[in-house]
Amino acid sequence: SYDIRDVIVSTFRPVRGSVAPVDTLREEGTLFLYQNRMRYKPKALLHPIFLHPGHRFDQEKSTRTYRRLVSTGVFDRVEIRFDTTGTGRLGLADARITLLPGKQQSVTTEGFVTNRGGALGTSLNLGYRHRNVFRTLGSLQAQVSLGLEAQQRISGSGGTEQTTGNVGALAAFNTVSIGPKITFSFPRPFAGLFSKGSSSMLLINGLFNYQRRPDYTRDLAKLSIGVQWQESRSNTIGIFPFELNTIKIPQISAGFRDYLEDSRNPVLLNSYTDHLITSARGTFVHSTPDAAKTRNVFY
């Protein structure tokens, strides 16, 4: 067993043959090594690190540090080793943490062809992700979806505004769905309220969706703000004090309105009216820790 003399965190990807100088920065006793520009705020990097100069070596803290750094999704590789060379005396070691930065930004494209009960369609998703927003190890995920589909009306038959019942007679892709979705995730908000080991996160979710269908057009929007943290190794708690949902039906065909009224179904009728819903939500998740080591698990 030994004591930790220094904690050294390398935050750059070395380039073979490069002679670029290595800069240093010390924050709360931890030494950070970087080149050109520090990609991460030192305080943000200290949150998932449980190794401290002058402390006794603890394998549990080393394992927790490794898991937390990997779980950020920011680094391509995380390596922790303990070096006893050059420490001056027996029983001392330097903790060296090597972090190979991954790509901070990425763009994805996905395309689909669908067939729902004979209604042919296609969709396109464009995604963007930033894994180190404001240099805080926080993440931003954004997605824009466009969907097109050929549907027949469900409002009955007869009249120029009603369906003929023949999908082939419809104009191609008469149903459109488009809208963005954005998710922000920031680690350890309100640091004074949560312990270092709680893995607390501030979560902000927002989405908007515009739908144009043969019988109606509909706008949907949702905004959610909340905090989630690990109360113990078994329990995770989430509190979302503010959630807002809006549904607006700016246009609806006379035939579809008659169809809803004739159905005499209040649930169906209310589904196609304007709504403004505010709510608060709480979540609690309990699961068996280290499930791989036990025969019986609970969730």
Short structural summary:
The protein has 299 residues and is mainly beta.
General description of the model:
The protein is mainly β and 299 residues long. It is 11% helix and 49% strand. The chain has an 8-stranded antiparallel sheet. Strands 2-3-1-5-4 form a 5-stranded mixed sheet.
Rg calc: 27 Å
Which structural category do the helix and sheet elements fall into?
mainly beta
Shape: elongated
Largest sheet: 8 strands, antiparallel
Task: Please outline the helices and strands.
Layout (H helix, E strand, L loop, with lengths): L2 E8 L12 E5 L2 E5 L7 H5 L12 H13 L3 E9 L8 E10 L3 E12 L2 E15 L4 E12 L25 E13 L13 E12 L3 E15 L4 E18 L1 H10 L2 H5 L4 E12 L13
Parallel strand pairs: 1-3, 1-5
Antiparallel strand pairs: 2-3, 4-5, 6-7, 7-8, 8-9, 9-10, 10-11, 11-12, 12-13
Keywords, separated by commas or semicolons:
single chain, 299 residues, mainly beta, 11% helix, 49% strand
